[in-house]
Write a structure and sequence with these properties.
This protein has 23 helices and 16 strands. The chain has helices spanning 5-9, 22-30, 54-77, 104-114, 157-165, 193-197, 201-212, 245-253, 262-282, 285-289, 297-304, 308-321, 335-340, 350-358, 362-365, 389-392, 398-421, 440-448, 460-463, 508-521, 537-549, 556-565, 615-627; strands at 15-17, 36-37, 83-93, 96-98, 118-133, 136-152, 186-190, 324-327, 330-333, 430-434, 453-458, 479-483, 496-500, 527-532, 568-574, 605-611. It is elongated and about 85 Å long. The structure holds the ligand O=c1[nH]cc([C@@H]2O[C@H](COP(=O)(O)OP(=O)(O)OP(=O)(O)O)[C@@H](O)[C@H]2O)c(=O)[nH]1.
């Protein structure tokens, strides 16, 4: 997600980060900036004594790092990127400038100098706008620095050496990493924390705003006047001519063009990001780079049997998307890739990625059916409902069905803990997960509630594949699988029924039928844990007509109303405390309607209902069911 409008402005420029620092890459990536990483070869050896102050040294080093990359890229292709960003972080204490320690002894002398005292961390940043004209490179540099004051506790010799032996100090300014183990040394921080980590994001956004909206308007339309090239900014840096192409048109013709349709262009372009991800997953790029040393593009190409040039482009795209990092030694996985994109990552979403790669959303394939007569994307080509994806896939090949199971499994695994702990379910002795598929949620329920026995109730054709998805370890004996159809067969007895990510695939009539069956099966004091993506009230109103015939997201209010009518008391809703964050490339669009059904359904609503204990009230549930619409 791109919160900062100025960062959004850079999305259509070719931006290069001239830094090998993984922390800088992560900070800017998290902010939504898209960039390539080309580490600078500038040697950080400017004579410190020539600079009036430590920050002046950091700013000049940052500038030289960025300019070296701009020049090198221009020389190579005779085309420089639009923007190159360079940064340099230093620690200043008692008039001394500390950079990265060269060895353990150096780390020791730095850290003992910082012990029990306050020091300043300065990060100098240079934003270089480039323009290649007639084979010449023009650059405009804008620069600034940020200061953060950090106080260390008194550090014992033992602690110092233990920290140094951890290896953490070696690639960090001042010999410590505040974001990791080094955080234990720190007593107080005054100022921007990210500045200490290596990049002052807040100040960077402000600087971009100054450059791109000199009149102070955070308006995507071009500024009417801007400073010319070579002006000086408030920090004494050279100011770039910040206006983009649209600004130039505006000042020449004297009329304002319409707001630049950034969001629309992003959408037009966004399939490329998914395509790069799909391709890299299919080729097992992330499996190849897991755990091993970084590999150059040509080595990856050799192992994949692909062309070096195409592989290089794919790898660079993955760097820009935040799945790979690139240094002089080659490409390696980011943490996100190791966790989510390798086949055996702890929270692998590779199955989900491959499923979407192989089954693009039907609306794009059959536009004539889109939106007509309430046709749902899960429906068949002519709009006939084939049921929820898992059942629909029964009509398809084993391979398709397995792919879908993998996709559902990976997503369920990612969200299972949030679901299992959203309410205290410890009073229930048995649970039945209706349509529980591979048992991903069932196993986590069993782990969270050691007393709970969980039955996964699903179609026989689904259950025949579950053996490949079973976890090792304790608690597995708490989970059992029972074949059945929750619309046709009697529901297994249980204290708690779980209906997770099922209802959105069904029209109202079927939802009512299923919940009625659950209400009937519920024992006095029994419960229902309902998990689904919730629509906001607006989307709910608009979706009303469509949903009656198809499935779709329903609002919290609709479910609550229905559950109460069915005799459930104590209906409560909860959003998970931390909605699991997929990578920003997978972020959910702001409007629930805007996101195609089944693509990225994070759990956004969890509710538990409990049938009222007295028997008469349970009877009421039965009669409610009969009289319900
Ligand atoms: O608390 C923390 N303090 C500093 C860091 C990291 O330290 C380095 C600072 O070094 P420098 O600015 O020279 O940057 P390099 O890593 O050499 O990369 P360049 O290619 O940009 O020169 C920086 O990585 C900070 O992130 C830290 O992690 N924690």
């Amino acid at each position: 997600m791109v919160l900062c409008p100025v960062i959004r402005k850079l999305l259509h420029k070719r931006v290069v980060l001239a830094s090998a620092s993984p922390r800088r890459q992560e900070i800017l990536r998290q902010a939504g900036l898209r960039f390539e990483v080309v580490p600078s070869r500038f040697k950080e050896m400017l004579p410190k004594a020539l600079f009036p102050s430590p920050p002046a040294y950091a700013v000049e080093t940052a500038k030289q790092k960025a300019l070296e990359v701009a020049r090198r890229m221009h020389q190579k292709d005779l085309r420089a990127p639009d923007v190159v960003i360079g940064a340099d972080t230093i620690v200043a204490v008692g008039g001394l400038i500390l950079e990265k320690p060269v060895d353990k002894q150096d780390a020791y002398s730095m850290l003992s100098r910082l012990s029990g005292k306050e020091h300043s961390v300065f990060t100098g940043v240079a934003i270089v706008h480039c323009c290649s004209r007639d084979g010449r490179l023009d650059t405009d540099v804008s620069e600034f620095y940020e200061e953060t004051r950090v106080r260390f506790s008194e550090l014992s010799e033992d602690l110092l050496w233990e920290y140094i032996d951890s290896g953490e100090p070696m690639d960090k300014a001042g010999g410590y990493g505040i974001q990791a183990l080094g955080g234990m040394l720190v007593e107080q921080v005054h100022g921007d924390f990210l500045n200490v980590v290596g990049f002052p994001l807040n100040r960077f956004c402000k600087k971009l705003a100054e450059l791109y909206y000199p009149s102070g308007r955070e308006d995507p339309r071009p500024a009417q006047s801007h400073q010319g090239r070579g002006g000086r900014d408030e920090d004494g840096g050279e100011r770039t001519q910040a206006a983009g192409p649209e600004e130039a048109v505006s000042s020449r013709t004297g009329h304002s063009p319409p707001p630049f349709p950034t969001g629309l262009l992003e959408l037009v372009d966004s399939f490329k990001a998914s395509k790069a991800l799909f391709t890299a997953c299919k080729l097992k790029v992330f499996d190849l780079l897991k755990d091993g040393a970084p590999l150059k593009a040509v080595d990856v190409a050799g192992k994949l049997g692909a062309s070096a040039c195409g592989t290089g482009r794919l790898l660079d795209a993955c760097v820009a998307l935040g799945f790979l990092q690139k240094t002089d030694r080659g490409y390696s996985n980011t943490e996100t890739a190791n966790l989510h994109l390798t086949s055996d990552g702890a929270y692998s979403l590779r199955g989900l990625v491959l499923h979407h790669s192989d089954h693009p959303w039907d609306l794009s394939a059959r536009p004539e059916s889109a939106g007509r007569d309430g046709v749902d994307p899960h429906d068949g080509a002519l709009g006939e409902r084939t049921g929820p994806p898992c059942q629909a896939s029964c009509a398809h090949s084993e391979e398709t069905r397995l792919g879908l199971l993998r996709a559902m499994h990976s997503l369920a695994k990612l969200t299972a803990r949030h679901v299992a702990t959203a309410f205290d379910l410890s009073r229930f002795g048995s649970a039945c997960d209706l349509g529980g598929c591979t048992g991903a949620l069932a196993y986590v329920l069993a782990r969270e509630y050691p007393r709970l026995r969980v039955t996964v109730f699903d179609l026989p054709e689904v259950l025949q594949h579950v053996a490949g998805f079973q976890p090792d370890g304790p608690r597995t004996e708490q989970v059992s699988f029972l074949p059945g159809d929750f619309f046709e067969d009697s529901l297994p007895e249980a204290d708690l029924y779980v209906v997770s990510r099922i209802l959105r695939d069904w029209p109202d009539g079927k939802v009512h039928e299923l919940l009625s069956r659950v209400a009937r099966a519920c024992k006095p004091g029994g419960g229902l844990l309902l998990v689904d993506v919730a629509a906001g009230p607006e989307a709910e109103a608009e979706a009303e007509g469509l949903r009656r015939r198809a499935g779709g997201e329903r609002s919290a209010a609709v479910y609550a109303h229905l559950l109460r009518r069915l005799g459930f008391a104590d209906v409560r809703a909860a959003a998970p405390s931390a909605t699991p964050t997929l990578h920003r490339a997978c972020a959910r669009p702001a409007s629930p309607r805007a996101h195609p059904a089944g693509l990225f359904p994070p759990v956004s609503l969890i509710r538990v209902g409990q049938t009222a204990s007295p028997r008469e009230e349970l009877g009421t549930a039965g009669s409610c069911k009969c009289g319900a619409p």
